[in-house]
Amino acid sequence: MPVLIQVRDAHKAYGDQVLLDGAEVSLTDDVKVGFIGRNGAGKSTFLRALLGDEELEKGEVIHHPSLRIGYLRQHDPFKPDESALDFLMRDSGQPDWKCGEVAGQFELKGAYLEGPVKALSGGWQTRVKLAALLLHDPNMLMLDEPTNFLDLRTQILLEHFLRDFGKAALIVSHDRAFLKATCTQTLELSRGKLTMFSGKIDAFLEYREERREHDRRVNSTVIAKQKQLERFIEKNRASAATASQARSKAKQLEKLQTTEIEVDEPTVYIRAPKVEPRSGTALRCEGLAIGYPATKDLPEHVIADTIALEIEHGQRIAIVGDNGQGKTTLLRTLVHSLEPLAGSMKWGHNIEIGTYAQHVYTSLDERQTVIEHLEYNSDSNLVRQDLLAMAGALLFRDEHIQKKVKVLSGGERARLCMASLLLGTANVLVLDEPGNHLDVETVEALATALDSYKGTVIFTSHDRHFVRRVATHVVEVRDGRVKLYFGNYDSYLESVEGEIDEGERERSGTAAGGKSAGKTSVGDYRKEKQDQRKTEKEIKNLEKKIARLDDERKKLDTKMSTETNPDEAMKLHTRIEELRVEIEEAEAKWLELSGYE
Fold first, then answer.
1. How far apart are the first and last CA of the chain?
2. I need a surface site. Which of 107, 184, 432, 436 has the fewest CB within 10 A?
């Protein structure tokens, strides 16, 4: 297995910030590596050094003679009025049939392939760039945050592309689910050093925490021993009879050293607004149409209509769907940033909505400082220490809390908006891509906070790990319709995966020149019958499971009515709620398999 890139004793700093301090690593053929590290650690600088676009102060980067790097460009490489097909042919020098064949792997066809590429969304443009990479036949890919602004379907297509790409890759990403699906090894940049781990990211993070916990235990033992020796020395050094022993103990003390525990950032803790739990309907939509009203230059544009939706207090609703389907338009309508085009939308009584979205965090009062904004928008019952803790969790520490809003970057404004929202009193949170501009640890802390929040959450996110952690229900926006998805987020992921797999099978069949789309082989027929029998068996097992769980719930309900011990009553209540959730999930799966979606 040849070494494609070797880095030796690399040093790089910007002012007082050391990014690379004797960093060393070897990247070999056929291995996909997930590259992680805190924001500002120097990951992008290191990639530029590998590409030869950044000079090291010391050290060297050695390329194998056969190395062909494919780098996912962040800038716009397209010409005005150029189609995706024109770009692919110009960029690669390959004929149209070859470009079209590769583009098909990313579902680029029809108007997406032959229309103006600049008219495509950012996600579709990324698909075009990925097709261009593949046409150059690289043996190492370098991808810097490739999932930024990609919808779920494009993320999965990218995963499938990388899974089938039989050569090396180095991928920078904060998306754990994506790295877990694509990379077999993990590279961390921390404090200028590179650490290669022969395993996936979850195993690495577990190993790293175990190592730190081991160091903490060793340090505790060392500190206790140091104190014991110090007491002995202090007690005995003045006595002639014991002075030699004290000197011996002093030598032992000099040898005892604690281990520096590397922690990238202070532990992040985020609190959600403290609100009273409520029951009943929080939001009801009937015959709702969303979109943009007519202007003197443009006709009315309906994104989705005939929307019938009911959301209960305490639910955490994930709004899912491809980019351009209308997820953000729906959220903006729900918070009255856009007026409905038709139908009715009614919030429940005493609802206070807190909004996190681009149209909010780009319009903050620029005259205020960070701390002034938090003081003005937070719960009046909170003390200053609460504000400082939340500000610190979202990377506003020390002198940064005195910065004026007008000098903050877009990402800093977004984090400030999130901080003030979480310090407020809203009992409904409407969040559009809340994980953007946050690192892995902070996203995890936000998910934990929302999981314990007693109010209602309606949100969009392309981070599958975050959605899986937070969502209790899924609403899909697709093809002009908005509907509650009968199943959990994992079943939604499975359905999208299935659609993509089916498209890939169709393309493979067409490319192989085998059967036409309208014909079914004997093998296909047998497989369909096998799948049908498997589904029927799963439905029967679900029916048995639902009956068993319901029987247990009824028995516990009866026992609960006569229980006098408060502790036992609480245990029964907890188990009954667990059973209720299990029954709902099993029923949703039964509905899905039975075709009642």
1. 49
2. 184
Residue 23 near residue 10, CB atoms below 8 Å = yes
How confident is the model at residue 391, as a pLDDT?
Answer: 85
| Residue matched to tokens 């996936």 | 200
Q: Which of 20, 21, 29, 23 has its CA nearest to residue 7?
A: 23
Distance CA 125, CA 113 (A): 10
Same fold, 3-204 and 281-495: yes
* Cross-strand partners of 211: none
Q: Which residues of the chain have pLDDT under 50?
A: 263-265, 514-523, 525-526, 529, 597
Element (H, E) at 540: helix 522-562
Q: Residue 254 class from Cβ within 10 Å (0-12 exposed, 13-18 middle, 19+ buried)?
A: exposed
Q: Are 25 and 189 in contact (CB under 8 A)?
A: no
Tokens (6 digits) for 585: 């999930």
Q: What pLDDT is stored for residue 521 in this prediction?
A: 43
**The amino acid at 530:** Q
pLDDT at 264: 44
Amino acid 532: pLDDT: 66
Hey, what are 49's tokens?
Answer: 């050094």
The amino acid present at 39, given as its one-letter code, is N
CA 139 to chain centre: 28
CATH architecture of 281-495: 3-Layer(aba) Sandwich (3.40)
pLDDT of residue 91: 92
Spatial distance between the Cα atoms of 243 and 236, rounded to a whole number of angstroms:
6
pLDDT at 267: 57
E-strand ranges in 1-103 read 3-14, 17-28, 32-36, 58-63, 69-71
> Two tokens at 349?
């009584």
d(CA 593, CA 585): 12
CB 5 within 8 A of CB 62: yes
pTM of the entire predicted model: 0.68
Euclidean distance between CA atoms 216 and 221, whole angstroms: 9
C-alpha 4, offset from chain centre: 30
Show the 3-state SS of 328-360: HHHHHHHCCCCCCCEEEEEECCCCCEEEECHHH
Domain map of the chain by residue range? 3-204, 206-255, 281-495, 528-597
281 and 312 Cβ atoms separated by less than 8 Å: yes
Distance CA 67, CA 4 (A): 6
Is domain 3-204 given the CATH code 3.40.50.300 in the classification?
yes
* Residue 277 DSSP class: -
Single out the residue of 20, 438, 221 nearest to residue 449, CA to CA. 438
Distance CA 574, CA 190 (A): 43
Q: Output Rg (C-alpha) for the chain, integer angstroms.
A: 29
